[in-house]
Amino acid sequence: MISFLHTSPVHVATFDGLLDELSPGTARRHRVEEGWLAAARNGGMTAGLAETITVAMRDLAADGVGVCTCSTIGAVAEAAGSDSAPTIRIDRALMRAALSHGPRPLVAICLESTKAPTLDLLNHEARTQTCPAAPVVVMCQEAWQHFEAGDMQAYARSIAATIRAELGRDKPDCIVLAQGSMAVAEPLLADTGLPALSSPRLGVVQALEMLWKNA
């Protein structure tokens, strides 16, 4: 079984769809905790919040693989795992893929609370691969109001517009949509001439590989 921890209900359908496409019949369950992202944004990753996330992820991973789809809390969620009950954050596979295109990814982020965890992960992957990393960070904060309002088309358009403005000044190696929800902007960047990468599909592929390995 693959068990997901989300901080928005919008992700449930996305990940169900990916599993239905990539591995029909794979058992899955979803846990949605919207308050945990709000708590991390407002008060940082406190010891109490970290313990709550850790307990939840260990429970989710007990029947197979636990997957955290939120970049802000991803580091804590991933650290909760063990060899027998593995946990992953969906953006780790994203960062590995980004570095395969070169050391200068454009990393687009909507939330300030996601910035440090995302860049820490990118730098960790760069050290693991013994390759350089010099990301171009683009903050898309204005887009988040559309996500909160449930207007995913406006959310995608705002993200894409901010990224295109940066591409007019610089030419990175690829485009990284750092948060899982930002995958909706990927089709709007298809004509940039650069690989546009997002985490949901890459994360599900990694989760399936881990599930099959431990079967």
Q: What can be said about this structure in brief?
A:
With 215 residues, the protein is of the alpha/beta class.
List strands and helices in order, with pairings.
Layout: E1 2-6, H1 10-22, E2 28-32, H2 34-43, H3 47-61, E3 65-68, H4 74-79, E4 87-89, H5 91-99, E5 105-109, H6 112-128, E6 136-139, H7 144-148, H8 152-167, E7 174-177, E8 196-198, H9 199-213
Parallel strand pairs: 1-2, 1-3, 3-4, 5-6, 5-7, 7-8
Percent of sequence in beta strands: 15-25%
Low-confidence stretches: none
Separation of termini? 10 Å
Secondary-structure element order, N to C: EHEHHEHEHEHEHHEEH
Radius of gyration: 16 Å
Helix tally? Answer: 9
Mean pLDDT: 94
* Largest sheet report: 4 strands, parallel
The assigned structural class equals alpha/beta
Brief descriptors of the model:
4-stranded parallel beta sheet; globular; 215 residues; alpha/beta; 49% helix; single chain
